[in-house]
Specification:
By secondary structure, the protein is an all-alpha fold. The protein has seven helices and no strands. Helix 3 runs antiparallel to helix 4. The longest helix is centred in the N-terminal third of the chain and has 27 residues, at about 5-30.
Amino acid sequence: MSFWAALSLFVATVVLMEGFAYVMHRWVMHGPGWFLHESHHRAREGQWELNDLYAAIFAVPSFVMILGGVQLGWWPGFTWIGAGIAAYGAIYFGFHDIIVHQRIPTRYLPRSRYMKRIVQAHRLHHVVETREGNVSFGFLIAPRPEELKAELKRRHRSGVRAPKGAACRNHATGDPALIED
């Protein structure tokens, strides 16, 4: 396989993974997979939550494709598709777990309009603690926060977490001020 074909497959996979992530988040994690994902909409106790199993589940196709393409004689394109899935997973981990949820402490503060937008969109997703009524299911491509706030208001803030004192207001995903007008 040529370098350019491999690179094209890799980049296309990374880009298409955002659509796949949206579909999985919207209709699986907030659907029949809620029994795992619900832990992600609650305050975490300790380092792990049941939702973390999704990372392992989504890593399996990547691992299998890379193994098949490199070791088992499958079509070489599988290697690059698997690598694209892994790259999206790494990007997602960096944005989601490190920057937004601060599971690894950093001093990073979003400064660019893009970074502020995706962080706020994800936080608005998390002000809803129920399976239904959520907004913003993608991650690297997010609607404008004003649109998300308007949608939450239109839904009469159904499922929106009630303020639980100062600790909640300072928590990365529980800021009730995020949905104020």
